[in-house]
Write a structure and sequence with these properties.
- By secondary structure, this protein is of the alpha/beta class.
- It is built from seven helices and five strands.
- A five-stranded parallel beta sheet has the order 1-4-3-2-5, sandwiched between helices.
- The termini are far apart.
- The structure holds pantoate (PAF).
- Pantoate (PAF) binds next to strand 2 and helix 6.
């Protein structure tokens, strides 16, 4: 597993590969993530995982602070399952560039839990869009824990 913290370096390493599977995570890895990584490994030869706790998708600083972060444990878990690449960006690496896409978020964003989490899904989609622009994977693997998130990302 190659660990990369810089998007330019990452692009250099993977841009030739048109058949990548991508599993975005915010760390706190559990069985669900492992199952996604396994599925990704069965789908394509090369798999990239990202680990980034995206502050833009937290409405409250308190929630961001409380979010489980244990990079050492996550790294041990990842080393065992051994994806080809782990992208571990800083905030600046992911957000300090102008994206090709503009985000037009579906009005479903304001429904269900979106009612109580203004800006949450926009923050999710901003990060995912950036990952997709950098990595250009053929497949993305997302957990089904959040129906609304999957729906909005697909849109
Ligand atoms: O579901 C998650 O863990 C996050 O929302 C995601 C898709 C990694 C974007 O930060």
């Amino acid at each position: 597993m190659k660990i990369i913290k810089n998007r330019h370096k990452l692009k250099e390493l993977i841009s030739y590969n048109k058949n990548l599977s991508f599993v975005p995570t915010m760390g706190g890895l559990h069985k669900g993530h492992l199952s996604l990584i396994k599925k990704a490994k069965n789908k394509t030869k090369k798999v990239i995982v990202s680990l980034f706790v995206n502050p833009k998708q937290f409405n409250s600083k308190k929630d961001l602070f409380k979010y489980p972060k244990n990079i050492k444990k996550d790294l041990l878990i990842l080393k065992k399952i051994n994806p080809d690449y782990l992208y571990l960006p800083t905030f600046k690496d992911l957000f300090a560039f102008k994206t090709k896409n503009k985000i037009h978020i579906d009005k479903f964003e304001k429904k269900l839990c979106g009612k109580f989490r203004p800006g949450h899904f926009k923050g999710v989609i901003d990060a995912v869009d950036r990952f997709l622009e950098i990595i250009k994977p053929r497949y993305i693997f997302l957990g089904k824990k959040d129906f609304q998130q999957i729906y909005l990302i697909k849109k």
